[in-house]
Amino acid sequence: MKFEDLLLEIGGFGRFQIIILFILCLPRINLPMHFLLHNFLAATPSHHCAIPHQEAFVNLTMEEVLLISIPREPDGTFKSCEMFSQPQFHLLLNSSLQPENNSIFQHCQHGWVYDHSQFTSTISTQWDLVCEQRGLNQATATFFFIGVTMGAMVFGYLSDRFGRKAMLLLSLLCSVVFGMLSAASVSYSMLVVTRTLTGVALSGVSLIVLPLGMEWVDIQHRTFSGILTSIFWSVGNMLLAMVAYLVREWHWLLVAVTAPCLLSIACLWWVPESARWLIANGKVKQAHRHLLRCARINGRKDFAVSPEVRSRHIGMVTDKKPGESYTYISLFRTPVLRKISLCSGAVWFGVAFSYYGMSMNLTGFGLNMYLSQFVFGIIEIPAKMIMYALVNRVGRRQSQAWALILTGLCIGANVIIPKSFTSLRSVVAIMGKGFSEAAFTTVFLYTSELYPTVLRQNGMGYTSFVARIGGALAPLVFLLDEVWRSLPEVTYCGVAVCCGSVAFLLPETLNVALPEGIEDIE
């Protein structure tokens, strides 16, 4: 007897499942508040070289001191990373006569002065991660996603080995500890280490929440549960904009986005372990206890407790033999699973690479960064509603492929649209963000349906690992603008279109029962 049939007897989508889903949505809210925190944590306000005091400056205003000490950009603003080697007093008479002799320019010698009108402090202003050190600033996000990448492998394996709930609780506890340590960082090195470890911990939350909820839901409501969980990511997106707007000091901002994990930990006690996982691992008595609880809460009191009925309903045969364990190598041992793993890995890379490429470029579309973050969160919700209809009508495969391809085309369109067309660029960017989120929403649902129960978390761990490589590389691609201003956008566009095309090679899972063992896949 399949687990899907058993779910129908105890209520495949009743009060029990609704409570579980909403509790699991709490940690989901917290994820984007860390994953996209780099936009505000490492924001770089306008700045210029610090000018040491000289007696010759006594009778000059600050504007005049800057005028004779710092060269200007073609648009008239002061350069951020250069100063004159000697004061150019002749500019007081005619400021338009900017020197063209590069020999009188030099890099900042005495640090920088920052505009604190928008941010009280960020890690950029704290440790001067600007100009020559700009790469270290972008690397902060990369180190975080390296942690998420490592965590995907660790928690993907552990949650298949030791259970979903225990590993979810462990990841939340570690998230709190390392998140608070990040807020207390006294050096850039300490911040990098603690943010990397926070990424490891949060990866477990990202990996486990959706499969744990879906393994309690019947086929008919699987898409709904996936979309519902994903909508709370968008809620977290919007909350991040509001929290960052209210908290402009980076230490306290880290505290503010980490503290909600405590609420998730407090509520998690009510959520049971996945009965599907328990049965697949031979823990039938424990699974039966949770199934009885589900039946009772859903009002299905006709679900009997007798040993005969227990044997009939739960003594299911899985392809997992006693003492047998699966590893990531199992994902590539059989031909169909190998194809699924290679193709889904490519899709996940493209989804994450383009999503974080757009999400970490809040100032590139002509909107205030707080407003951009909020609008990007809002636009994700209708995108997910549309995907809810599409994945149930045209299927997972077509929806996944075209959402990612259209994301790339929107990014590419903004390379062509002139900078002066601010409104049009903003509209195209918002559309691209909607398609990007639609692709991300679908890939979580799609992947969890592609892999069998005995390997589902290993599969999610592997694909998440590949995705986080994309997430880690995304912020570094911004540094390519020194080669060609539009090269980052062209890169995001090309990767999204190519990886979206790979999705056409995956099998369709619409209205197909979740596979229990490898034989169901092959």
Tags for this model:
mainly alpha, 2% strand, transport, Growth Hormone, Chain: A, Solute carrier family 22 member 7, transmembrane helix, MFS_sugar_transport-like, organic anion transmembrane transporter activity
Overall domain count:
3
The overall pLDDT, averaged over residues, is: 86
Radius of gyration: 26 Å
Described by strand count, sense and barrel closure, the largest sheet is: 2 strands, antiparallel
CATH topology of the largest domain: Growth Hormone, Chain: A
Going by CATH, the architecture of the largest domain would be Up-down Bundle
User: What would you call the shape?
Assistant: elongated
Q: Hey, roughly how much beta strand do the residues contain?
A: under 5%
Q: What is the topology, as strand order, of the major beta sheet?
A: 1-4
Helix content: 55-70%
Class of the largest domain, according to the CATH hierarchy?
Answer: Mainly Alpha
Number of helices: 21
The rounded distance between the terminal residues' Cα atoms is: 19 Å
SSE string = HHHEHEEEHHHHHHHHHHHHHHHHH
Low-confidence stretches: 305-311, 313-319
Total strands: 4
Alpha-beta classification: mainly alpha
What is the CATH homologous superfamily assignment of the largest domain? MFS general substrate transporter like domains
